[in-house]
């Protein structure tokens, strides 16, 4: 999922010290801290406060903004060729997957993000059988896709084998999906994998990190990619959906509006929608597109949920899918007025930078 970033670890209480090999590698880590509780109070806590808040995870969201979680502890940590992977046990949000210092998903509310990413596209499609997921290494996007009874094949293409193996081992809620015969896992760059196949899909899902300076996925948010790679690999009635970054009052102009406008220049019918995700401290945005008309009908969506999906959805029903496409006046105005089309030469970034920038320094 989105919101990745690389920078450096501040060495106070550091669960990754045993993973470091040299100073250059150290600089690849993201800017975050696990902070002892006494550093968060003018006066050190006593009694219950001290027991309840032993450490904090702190994420740098912007130059002037941080977001903190009280922890029970660090469950697992690893470092791959591409990124730093940590599984935290947070008091508020349960298990939380952190990649390169940026929260990717949290146990207690990840269903909001993943239901919104997957189900509107699959429910708006008349009969989705084949799904291609770009990214999605934690397995949650595959899990939601496989809830659809008639889906026959889900390809999850992630560049980082270690992330997939890490999540397959430690995220118990996705283990059933990882063992489903319908799921085919491919370790490759999504662009390269799509370019080398002649197969076309009913739905293509973009569950990729946000575009960041020096990041690995920036080209996968551009008009040439949507036009030359995504569109040719969709069937005639196919649907494309992608996560599109944060979409709150103060964050929607970062990348949400430009991704929406870029996709509008490629597909005939485009829908932007949003939902608040508590662990992100903001709203998330998604963009869904097709060259066939997209019918937002509450009764039809509810009927398809009942007919097609195993079990219950926790967040979405027909009415909430339709209502998620109604954004407030400020964001609606920004979407209508956006002029930037992302081409690869004029990408818009979120806060932070990636390994490519570090390696050049």
Automatic annotation (TrEMBL):
Enzyme class: transferase
Superkingdom classification of source: Eukaryota
Annotated Gene3D superfamilies: Spermidine synthase, tetramerisation domain (2.30.140.10), Vaccinia Virus protein VP39 (3.40.50.150)
One Pfam family in the UniProt entry: Spermine_synth
Regions of compositional bias (Basic and acidic residues) in chain numbering: 11-27
UniProt region (Disordered), positions on chain: 1-27
Record bears the keyword Transferase: yes
Keywords: Polyamine biosynthesis, Transferase
Catalytic residue list: 207
Catalytic reactions of this protein: S-adenosyl 3-(methylsulfanyl)propylamine + spermidine = thermospermine + S-methyl-5'-thioadenosine + H(+)
Ranges of residues in domain PABS: 54-291
This enzyme's EC code(s): 2.5.1.79
Family the UniProt entry places it in: Belongs to the spermidine/spermine synthase family.
NCBIfam families recorded: MFS_SpdSyn
Protein name as annotated: thermospermine synthase
The organism's taxonomic lineage, starting at the top: Eukaryota, Viridiplantae, Streptophyta, Embryophyta, Tracheophyta
């Amino acid at each position: 999922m989105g919101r990745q970033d690389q920078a450096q670890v501040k060495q106070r209480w550091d669960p990754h010290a045993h993973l470091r090999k040299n100073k250059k590698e150290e600089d690849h880590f993201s800017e975050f801290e696990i902070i002892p509780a006494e550093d968060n109070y003018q006066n050190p806590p006593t009694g219950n406060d001290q027991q309840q808040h032993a450490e904090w995870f702190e994420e740098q969201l912007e130059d002037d903004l941080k977001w903190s979680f009280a922890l029970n502890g660090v469950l697992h940590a690893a470092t791959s060729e591409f990124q730093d992977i940590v599984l935290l046990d947070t008091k508020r949000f349960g298990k939380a997957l952190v990649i390169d210092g940026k929260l990717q998903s949290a146990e207690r509310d990840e269903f909001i993000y993943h239901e919104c990413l997957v189900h509107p596209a699959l429910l708006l499609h008349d009969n989705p059988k084949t799904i291609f997921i770009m990214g999605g290494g934690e397995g949650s996007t595959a899990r939601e896709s496989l809830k659809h009874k008639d889906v026959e094949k889900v390809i999850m293409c992630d560049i980082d084998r270690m992330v997939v193996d890490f999540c397959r081992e430690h995220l118990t809620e996705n283990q059933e999906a990882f063992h489903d015969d319908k799921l085919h896992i491919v370790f490759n760059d999504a662009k390269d994998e799509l370019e080398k196949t002649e197969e076309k899909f009913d739905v293509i899902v973009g569950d990729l990190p946000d575009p960041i300076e020096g990041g690995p996925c920036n080209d996968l948010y551009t008009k040439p990619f949507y036009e030359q790679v995504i569109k040719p690999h969709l069937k005639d009635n196919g649907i494309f959906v992608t996560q599109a970054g944060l979409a709150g009052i103060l964050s929607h102009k970062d990348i949400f509006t430009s991704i929406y406008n870029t996709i509008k220049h490629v597909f005939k019918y485009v829908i932007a929608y949003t939902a608040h995700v508590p662990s992100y401290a903001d709203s998330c945005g998604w963009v869904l597109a097709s060259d066939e008309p997209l019918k937002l009908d509450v009764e039809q969506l509810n009927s398809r949920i009942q007919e097609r999906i195993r079990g219950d959805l926790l967040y979405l029903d027909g009415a909430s899918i339709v209502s998620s496409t109604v954004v407030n006046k400020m964001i609606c105005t920004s979407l209508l007025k956006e002029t930037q089309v992302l081409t690869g030469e004029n990408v818009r970034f979120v806060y932070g930078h990636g390994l490519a920038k570090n390696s050049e320094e």
